[in-house]
Each structure stands twice: as structure tokens, then as C-alpha cells.
Amino acid sequence: MAQHTASGWEFTDDRDHLVRAARRPSRLVAYVPTGAALHDHGIRPVGI
């Protein structure tokens, strides 16, 4: 689940790995099924 914190943005994936960044990502790459679902909601991945 992604969270916006006072120190930036963080995300814990399904393998329980925490990723932190200074700000929320503005571009994303997705696997085909996920990319298709995002596309249906108006979110355009930069790579599939």
C-alpha cells in the first residue's frame, strides 16, 4: 500500500519490501493485466 508521509512517499510490496522516495512517482511500468486495468481507468503506463 502506498502512503504519503511527511518525509516523502513509501510503498510496501507483496513481498514485504519497503520502497521510499522523496516524492510520489509520476511514471509507472506495469505487467500486461495490470497495465490494461490501469488504462481502463485513464492511467497510462510508460511501459508494459
Structure description:
By secondary structure, the protein is α+β, with helices and mostly antiparallel strands. The protein has one domain (2-40). It has one helix and three strands; from the N terminus they run E-E-E-H. It has one helix at 32-40; strands spanning 2-5, 8-12, 18-21. Strands 1-2-3 form a three-stranded antiparallel β-sheet, with no helix packed on it. Strand 2 and strand 3 (18-21) form a beta hairpin. The radius of gyration is 12 Å and the shape is globular.
Radius of gyration: 12 Å
Structural class: alpha+beta
Can you list the strand order of the major beta sheet? 1-2-3
Q: What is the tally of beta strands?
A: 3
Helix proportion of residues, in percent?
10-25%
Ranges where pLDDT stays below 50 over 5 or more residues in a row are none
* Beta-strand percent range: 25-35%
User: What's the mean pLDDT score?
Assistant: 88
Q: What is the makeup of the main sheet?
A: 3 strands, antiparallel
Q: What's the end-to-end separation, in Å? A: 21 Å
Write out key terms for the chains shown.
3-stranded antiparallel beta sheet, 27% strand, 19% helix, 1 helix, 48 residues
Question: Which secondary structure elements does this structure contain, and how are they paired or packed?
Answer:
Elements: E1 2-5, E2 8-12, E3 18-21, H1 32-40
Antiparallel strand pairs: 1-2, 2-3
Write a compact overview of the structure shown.
The protein is α+β, with helices and mostly antiparallel strands.
